[in-house]
Write a structure and sequence with these properties.
Residues 3-184 form the Thioredoxin domain. With 214 residues, this protein is an alpha/beta fold. The protein has helices at 6-10, 44-54, 57-62, 77-83, 97-101, 112-116, 119-130, 172-179, 204-210, and strands at 13-16, 21-23, 33-37, 66-71, 89-92, 146-150, 157-162.
Length: 214
């Protein structure tokens, strides 16, 4: 993975939920920060991952570490907030420049189908459904996400994670390890799902039925 230069990406502008424009680098100017980049706010996997990461919020706060969620668009933001999935501050990268600079890929209409039908996605969506976490198909279905953890003052990048599959996420223990903190939380288990593809795997009805694009 290419080394991330914080100076150029740090000048990218984000919009807060209150409408204020801020530079990305302002989020790590006076404290370490965990930046969670969502695929979209309606994404079921993203909502489950947001809830998982939020388990760390008390320990992050106790260590003076900020927790921030960033979405590529405002679509679905209000519903996401109302659902209480995430305990950190929220911002929007309207130009998706941070996503580009950090190497978070975009799918095509063809490549997103097999990606969304992958085992990792199905595992997480099963876990999400078991916890009552639902999603929808609103917004940009093609954007992927990831995570960036930066030391105070932008001294260095502690973790840079890029999704390969829409079902990929950073385990809580890896986040704690990158920050060199101890956290008293239990991560949600990723269930084992046995699934056999069918001849009509490209049929959109499968995606809508199983919510695998959420």
């Amino acid at each position: 993975m290419a080394k991330i230069e914080l100076k150029p990406v740090g000048t990218n502008l984000l919009k807060s939920v209150s409408g204020e424009s801020v530079e990305l680098q302002s989020l790590w100017s006076d404290k370490p920060v965990v930046l969670f980049f969502l695929r979209r706010f309606g994404c079921q996997v993203c909502r489950w991952t947001a809830a998982e990461i939020s388990k760390l919020e008390p320990d992050l706060t106790a260590h003076g570490i900020a927790l921030v969620g960033i979405g590529p668009e405002e679509t679905g933001l209000e519903e996401f907030k109302e659902g209480g999935f995430f305990k950190g501050d929220l911002y929007i990268d309207e130009k998706k420049q941070c996503y580009k600079d950090l190497g978070f890929k975009r799918y095509t209409a063809l490549s997103v189908v097999p990606a969304a039908l992958g085992k990792k996605v199905r595992e997480v969506t099963t876990k999400a459904k078991a916890q009552g976490i639902q999603g929808n198909f609103t917004g940009d279905l093609l954007q992927s996400g990831g995570m960036l953890i930066v030391a105070k003052g932008g001294e260095k990048v502690l973790l840079h994670f890029v999704q390969d599959s829409p079902g990929d996420y950073v385990p809580l223990e890896d986040i704690s390890k990158a920050l060199d903190i101890s956290a008293n939380v239990q991560a949600g288990e990723r269930p084992q799902v046995i699934w056999q593809p069918t001849n009509d795997w490209q049929d959109k009805n499968i995606l809508e039925r199983d919510h695998v694009l959420e």
